[in-house]
């Protein structure tokens, strides 16, 4: 199903499937807390469920993460004036 979607259609569908967070672009990044991967909307796997309805899944092999498991991954920390004080430690996950 994903190969058949044009980018605008993919974004619209992703916006409908992710009920917790808003997607403004397919280039937005999310952190999957299941596998700790950073993914984009372009990478999200959209497939048809047994019910015939579309589902969104983490693209990482063997990960069963869905939109409820993805959190905004902002690149704003890269613009931090004191980057040496900020770490990206996900050991708490």
List keywords for this structure.
about 20% strand; about 10% helix; 5 strands; 1 helix; alpha+beta
Task: Describe the fold and architecture.
The chain has 1 helix and 5 strands, in the order αβββββ. β3 (45-48) and β4 (54-57) form a beta hairpin. Strands 2-1-5 form a 3-stranded antiparallel sheet, with no helix packed on it. It has a two-stranded antiparallel sheet with strand order 3-4. It is of the alpha+beta class and 93 residues long.
Main sheet, how many strands, which sense, barrel?
3 strands, antiparallel
Helical amount among residues, as a percent range? Answer: 10-25%
Structural class: alpha+beta
Global geometry: globular
Task: Kindly report the average pLDDT value.
Answer: 84
End-to-end Cα distance: 31 Å
Rg value = 15 Å
Beta strand %: 15-25%
Cross-sheet strand order for the largest sheet: 2-1-5
* Topology pattern, helix = H, strand = E: HEEEEE
Number of strands: 5
The stretches of 5 or more residues where confidence is low (pLDDT under 50) are: 78-87
Enumerate how many helices there are, as a single number.
1
List the helices and strands and how they pair.
Elements: H1 7-17, E1 29-32, E2 38-40, E3 45-48, E4 54-57, E5 70-72
Antiparallel strand pairs: 1-2, 1-5, 3-4
What's a concise summary of this model?
This protein has one helix spanning 7-17; strands at residues 29-32, 38-40, 45-48, 54-57, 70-72. The chain is α+β, with helices and mostly antiparallel strands and 93 residues long.
């Amino acid at each position: 199903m994903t190969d058949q979607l044009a980018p605008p259609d993919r974004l619209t569908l992703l916006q409908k499937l992710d009920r917790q967070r808003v997607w403004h672009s397919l280039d937005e990044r999310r952190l999957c807390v299941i596998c700790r991967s950073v993914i984009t909307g372009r990478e999200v796997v959209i497939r048809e469920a047994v019910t015939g309805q579309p589902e969104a899944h983490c693209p990482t092999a063997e990960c069963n993460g869905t939109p409820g498991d993805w959190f905004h991954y902002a690149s704003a920390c890269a613009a931090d004036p004191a980057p040496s004080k900020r770490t990206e430690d996900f050991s708490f996950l």
